[in-house]
Amino acid sequence: MKTDQSVYIQSPAINPWMTLGVILLAPLITVIDVFIVNISSPAIKGYFHSTDAALELVIASYLLGYAVFLITGSRTGDYLGKKSVFITGLAAFTITSGMCGFATSMEMLIVSRLLQGIAAAFTVPQTITLIQLNFQSPTDRDKAYGLYGASLGTGATIGQFLGGYFVSSHLIHDSWRLIFLVNLPFGIIAMILAWFFVQESPQNKSTRFDVPGTLLLTLALSFLIYPIVQGTELGWPAWTIGMLAAALVLLIIFVRYQYRRGIQQRDPLVPLDLFRIRSFNTGIISVLFFFGVNTAYIFIISIYFQSGFHLPPFKTGNYFVLQTLAYLAASLWSIKNAGRYGIRLLQVGVIAIVTAFILQLILFQGDEITPWAIFPCLIIYGMGSGLLMPSLLKVAMWDMPAAKAGAASGVYSTIQQIASALGVSILGGIFLRLAHTSGNYYLAYKVALFCMIGYLAIVMYMLRRVKR
User: Fold this and answer.
1) What is the per-residue pLDDT across 99-121, written as a single tens digit (0 to 9) for each?
2) How many other CB atoms are there within 10 angstroms of residue 306's CB atom?
3) What is the mean pLDDT of residues 234-255?
4) 0.90 exceeded by the pTM?
5) How would you class 23 by CB atoms within 10 Å of its CB: exposed for 0-12, middle for 13-18, buried for 19 or more?
6) Topology (CATH) of 15-198+269-464
7) In sequence order, what are the residues at sequence separation of 6 or more whose Cβ sits closer than 8 angstroms to the Cβ of residue 466?
8) What is the DSSP letter of 177?
9) CA 144 → CA 133, 150, 394, distances in Å?
């Protein structure tokens, strides 16, 4: 079948690799803001005298806003042009970062984080689609997707380091505020670069926004995530069970509604025909469980280091530099050698992460920890995620037609953020609840690690089903 060249961006004046360098700033900055809160969370909790559940909501509300509006953000890019929405989203993200930095209450911080996540949702999907539209060569496109995946892992660990640095720096009186205010100069720089080095994509004015679908999905995900966060804190009262049941009903209604819109060719929010593509299904399920582990793990280990081993924030953040270096080395190597080793590379990545968890079960005991126990665990984890993360997007998009890239990128990113929100809510909730009730951080951490190993077993099973 001949590819429709009109969907691609043709601009001899702008090198696509230059465009890639600019648009990757969006996932880098937005992922940093997921993880920069982790090491800062004890300081935020102490400043506002908040509960563990409120602390989880600071992270989960960002991920919820991110997840709910990703598909809408992607469709908006189809309608108004990717570059326009990309720059507008960066502007909104910068403004809402300032709102987080100047928050005067925990409630204001949670709401500002929700709005910050919504802004990110209109920015990041443009990145994935612009990769698809700027790179016609499958080889170049795979490398670009690999670099996108590398930016996610790099942003996660840079966020850990910066969180520790700013909380410990005392550059201002309430130094935790800097974890949000730092976005202001970087957001402005990213907008300026995008104005000059990103080519506008073709617009599709025939796109119709699925407002009822957006409302249904918003309600369903809110009813799913909020009671999970509050349930572990409050002991699962009846209203949390009721909300979860309502979430299930709303999701069923949403799927049926999307099916009817698809039959009527009325631009459903989630085109269900995407799920007829086997590689997309495999990638989506793998993403669901891997990002649930990855986001929860970094949240949990940050708290464990500070509350279980009583390490200062800056020292905790510094340890994650090693994980970043290992991740970068492994991800760059995997991007270069993905064609040679194929899916086996991702499977080795899963095995490496499980190995890192087993080592932690052995070495992370007692009330004290030495660097020599921490180093191998973080390095092996970084290497494993470096082999795995850059290629998950490539697996999902292997057989995706370019014309469907916008819708697919929105669904992919939505699942990724839902997975992260549920990971923090479920796995993080288990850890915090056990740590609070037993007072034994190692027991809580051990239970959480066993749950994460179970998640990774599902990822390994899905990767074994890949036919490449």
Assistant:
1) 999 999 999 999 999 999 999 98
2) 21
3) 91
4) no
5) buried
6) Growth Hormone; Chain: A; (1.20.1250)
7) 279, 282, 343, 395
8) G
9) 11, 10, 9
